UniProtKB/TrEMBL annotation:
The lineage of its organism: Bacteria, Pseudomonadati, Pseudomonadota, Alphaproteobacteria, Rhodobacterales. This is Aspartokinase. It comes from Roseicyclus persicicus. InterPro entries: AceGlu_kinase-like_sf, ACT-like_dom_sf, ACT_Aspartokinase, ACT_dom, AKii-LysC-BS, Asp/Glu/Uridylate_kinase, Asp_kin_monofn, Asp_kinase. NCBIfam families: asp_kin_monofn, asp_kinases, PRK06635.1-2, PRK06635.1-4. Belongs to the aspartokinase family.
Amino acid sequence: MPILVMKFGGTSVATLDRIRRAAKRVGREVANGYDVIVIVSAMAGETNKLVGFVEETSPLYDAREYDAVVSSGENVTAGLMALTLQEMDVPARSWQGWQVPLITTSAHAAARIEEIPTANILKKFEEGMKVAVIAGFQGISREGRITTLGRGGSDTSAVAFAAAFGAERCDIYTDVDGVYTTDPRITSKARKLDRIAFEEMLELASLGAKVLQTRSVELAMRYNVKLRVLSSFEEMSDEAGTLVCAEEDIVESNVVAGVAYSRDEAKLTLTQVADRPGIAAAIFGPLAEAGVNVDMIVQNISEGGTTDMTFSCPVNEVKRAEKAMADAKAAGLVDFGRLVADTDVCKVSIVGIGMRSHAGVAAKMFQTLRDEGINIKVITTSEIKVSVLVDRKYLELAVQALHDAFGLDRAA
Ligand code: ASP
Ligand code: MG
């Protein structure tokens, strides 16, 4: 039997009623002749609640226990989904990550998948089981501790299962009906894309378009997994959703495919840093060790042998960054004047593979922001993207203006 992977996000399993609706979809695919691997997230809001419990209990928590707690939301939905399918006379059972076992690295809260043995589950399919329900987001390290794959990690579970089992497709059911040119909550002109290239999706995902976890897109690209994003609230149809695919499979597209944003960013500047070889290593080494996800980095012109070093990171990592820098300074590893943190910024980016062959895209972005009176604080670019940091209060305005400027409300 061909295998299909179906992943249901938190909103699609938020209530027993929704679990029933999701199960009906699974039942229809079984009737279509598939053996189905279902990956479930925790009920909407559940993981946030669990993270909150952990943080309240222990601000500098042991990541192994964090994983033990936050992985539990998926255990509930996996069991409930299997029970719901059984009630519909569809032979199904659930697996928690350790039962598969889905083996990961021991990087707790951000573990990477190393191995998914298929024999157990395939044997059950041979024996007549129709649906394997897997608790997403979780695995087990070689040390035998429960791990999680980072927030949004059940997308990655889904793609990894699709790759391991050679699934015909990996359908990601979520609360939106596909990938949009930007967040439809910010502008009603946002348009659903029929197709998007892996590279573009990768940028959009890493820039905070929360539809898919970045890692899941990387995996899909590497193993060429046909990935479809679709809504669990709409009627099924073959054309539904957005197909994330190779660049060659896209005929026409706009120069800019989408506008992404990330709301909770912080800009940190170290003043009067000695301008000498090794200084960047001395700063970003300790930050990396402290688990700070540094994003943009800008070093300014040097005057009198010192320079300012500016970088950005998620706003909830500022405390870690400050501590890491204070410790490094105290240990004599790095010398600087002050650390100035601006915690009221956001990042807005335009993304598109068309930028490779079009000049003037960045200039147009800057002109558009100028016309709205928005000050740009940091700029970075890559081959297919331009990102800026601006004051958080301008987030909506910047996204709307750029969406208009690049004509994203119209198909190419
Ligand atoms: N429940 C987990 C989270 O919210 C994993 C997921 O839903 O993908 O991050
Ligand atoms: Mg998600």
